[in-house]
Amino acid sequence: MTTQVKITHSFNAPRGEVFKAFTDSEHLQNWWGPKGWAFNVSKSDFRTGGVFHYSQKPDDGDAMWVKFVYNEIIVPEKIVYTSIFSDEEGNIIRAPFNEKWPLETLNTLTFIEDEGKTTITDVVTPVSAAEEEIKIFGESQTMVYEGFSGTFQQLEDYLSK
After folding, report:
1. Computed over its alpha carbons, how large is the radius of gyration of the chain?
2. Sequence-distant contacts of 26-35: CB under 8 A, at least 24 apart
3. How much is the pTM?
4. What is the pLDDT of residues 108-146, one digit of tens each?
5. What DSSP character marks residue 9?
6. Peptide bond into 76 cis (omega under 30)
7. Cα separations in angstroms, 70 against 3, 25, 78, 129
């Protein structure tokens, strides 16, 4: 069973513009997360070791809090961050949709520009996960892929405005 999900998406926009959409909370709040969900940024500190903490909420449900800890940033080529489900204060909690989901996943985003278009590749892998957590992550690859694909589609729509 593979323990990573790889998502690739191309945008009709220069790399600097696409990178800025990922790093500036003024942009992120306009496209990040599931379509139609409310998005609220609690903290945005885009630097190595910095934290991005936000909530996302469907119309008919409770807010879900997520925290990114930035491990590596190479402007405008690469962002590596650990993604963690959290409470409103930023404490690590189990994923609300599955208590066996890995506590942390590592996201490695690369940004490649070619003739004014930008291709992002995101590789998502569980971090220090137990065997059962890896199994659940493996079984959830379609959900992860579809979630990021939908989010990237929202970014594409946002960039075209």
Report:
1. 15
2. 27/158, 28/54, 30/158, 31/151, 31/154, 31/155, 31/157, 31/158, 32/56, 32/151, 32/154, 32/155, 33/151, 34/58, 34/147, 34/150, 34/151, 35/150, 35/154
3. 0.94
4. 999 999 999 999 999 999 999 999 999 999 999 999 999
5. E
6. yes
7. 21, 14, 11, 19
